[in-house]
Amino acid sequence: MCTFCSGCTSTFNSRCPAGRDIAGVAIFHTGLRQRRIYTHERYNHVIPLSDRWRVFFVDERVVPLDHADSNFLGCNEKLFDHVNIDPSHIFKIDPSLPPDECATAYETHLRTVFGENITAANPPKFDLMLLGMGPDGHTASLFPEHPLLEVDDVLVASITNSPKPPPGRITLTLPVINAADRIVFVCTGAGKAPNLAKVLHKEEPLLPAARVSGSNIEWFVDSDAAAEFAAGGNKM
User: Fold this and answer.
1) Nearest alpha-carbon partner for 157 in 176, 144, 133
2) Could you give phi then psi for residue 205, rounded to 5 degrees?
3) Could you tell me the pLDDT band of residue 43, with boundaries at 50, 70 and 90?
4) How is residue 202 annotated by DSSP?
5) Tens digit of pLDDT for each residue in 175-194?
6) Per the omega criterion (within 30 degrees of 0), is the bond before 99 cis?
7) Of the four, 3, 77, 127, 150, which is 20 to 30 A from 31 by CA?
8) How far apart are the first and last CA of the chain?
């Protein structure tokens, strides 16, 4: 379950750098899929996704936006349709492009918001990065032992051989993810327990989620996902 609180959103909105009176948020759809999000109209005042917010996707499947596999579709149905946000502030992919061109085009969206000077060495600084973790320890579309884990020269990378279907995707790279001001993981279910324990213990070889190394990382997990970590006497 993922919720936003008024304290968090007001803090993010106040941290916009000079000359950029907006807050940037990136969403990884695993954090939202099949989860209940409180978007009743009475919560709209504490989810101020208004003119100051810009929403990007940490990763996206290169499929039509109305396809069942589309991250945008799932987020739109579960969140965006229920809160006050300008649709033009939600940055979608162009699914008509092949993955490599789609990734390049998505970098253009990033530069529209964060400025032309951003690079992998000088990445955009998102106010909030919402991530999930798959049972194999992947996050975004960064999979175990995949070459994309080592990509450090672009902001957005493409993948055409994803171990998890669909094969064609784009993803923010680790330099961009790790630069975020605040990173929040949402992880639920017993199937993730073994690798969640490995990620939190930083066991070698590091799984993709363990390579997320921002300065402000929080985990929201349920008891099933935390079972093996807690079994070792650890406390969340």
Assistant:
1) 176
2) -70, 145
3) low
4) T
5) 999 999 999 999 999 999 99
6) no
7) 150
8) 16
Closest by Cα among 84, 8, 72 to 39: 84
The Cα 24–Cα 176 span in angstroms is 12
Distance CA 98, CA 184 (A): 30
Per-residue DSSP letter, 2: -
Nearby residues of 183 by Cβ (< 8 Å), 6 or more positions away: 128, 129, 131, 177, 212, 214, 216, 217, 218
Instruction: Express each pLDDT in 91-140 by its tens digit.
Output: 999 999 999 999 999 999 999 999 999 999 999 999 899 999 999 999 99
Main-chain dihedrals φ then ψ at residue 145, nearest 5 degrees: 65, 15
What's the predicted TM-score (pTM) here?
Answer: 0.84
Query: Which pair of structure tokens corresponds to residue 191?
Result: 């199937």
User: Rounded to the nearest 10 degrees, how much is the dihedral formed by the CA atoms of 94, 87, 55, 95?
Assistant: -10
Tokens of 104: 């390049």
